[in-house]
Specification:
The chain is built from 7 helices and 5 strands. By secondary structure, the protein is mainly alpha-helical.
Length: 181
């Protein structure tokens, strides 16, 4: 949600792609659906999809906690453990399939009574949230792995009611300055 990764990028992301010194993840591979729903590693979608993104302190902490849990799982499973190093993994440590992630998302939505949106919709929500937090469009495009801002603005962002209210408040400030000037 923080970075707006594509499904395949998220599945292919490994703990070794995280640098705790800089707090950054490097997106350098993609997972696609292969034979028997097994994930197959490929190159990222585009050249700009290869990117390094600095994570928030919150996300860094959650990632470190997840890595500790992964190491505990490795110890508990012993020889049955598949050491994929993947952040999103199955109960035995193997890389999760793209369909499995989509199914987990659907189950999460049902469990929490959320409005149904496609998993890829989280990528759009992420972009809109970044804009709402004041990130410049170029930085948002970079985090999403877009070559230019046009795609980010046209497809991946939305104008929320909160943004409309803030814009109206900015116009009120403008007119107040004009009237007092």
């Amino acid at each position: 949600m923080e970075v707006g990764l594509r499904r395949g990028e998220a599945i292919a992301l490994k703990y070794s792609d995280f640098d705790p010194e800089t707090g950054a993840i490097t997106v350098q591979r993609n997972a696609v659906i292969g034979v028997d729903d097994k994930p197959v590693i490929t190159d990222p979608k585009t050249m700009t999809s290869r990117r390094t993104v600095v994570l928030s302190q919150y996300c860094q902490q959650k990632l470190l906690e997840s890595q500790k849990a992964y190491k505990r799982l490795r110890f508990l499973k012993g020889p049955d453990f598949v050491d994929s190093d993947c952040i999103l993994h199955t109960r035995n440590g193997a890389m999760m399939s793209p369909h499995a992630l989509t199914n987990k998302w659907k189950s999460f939505q049902r469990k929490h009574g959320l409005r149904k949106i496609k998993l890829h919709g989280l990528r759009k929500t992420s972009a809109t949230n970044m804009i709402m937090q004041g990130m410049d469009v170029k930085s948002v495009a970079n985090r999403l792995g877009h070559k230019n801002c046009d795609i980010t603005l046209k497809i991946y962002t939305a104008v929320t009611n909160e943004m409309k209210v803030k814009n109206a408040e900015k116009m009120d400030e403008f007119f107040a300055k004009m009237a007092s000037g």
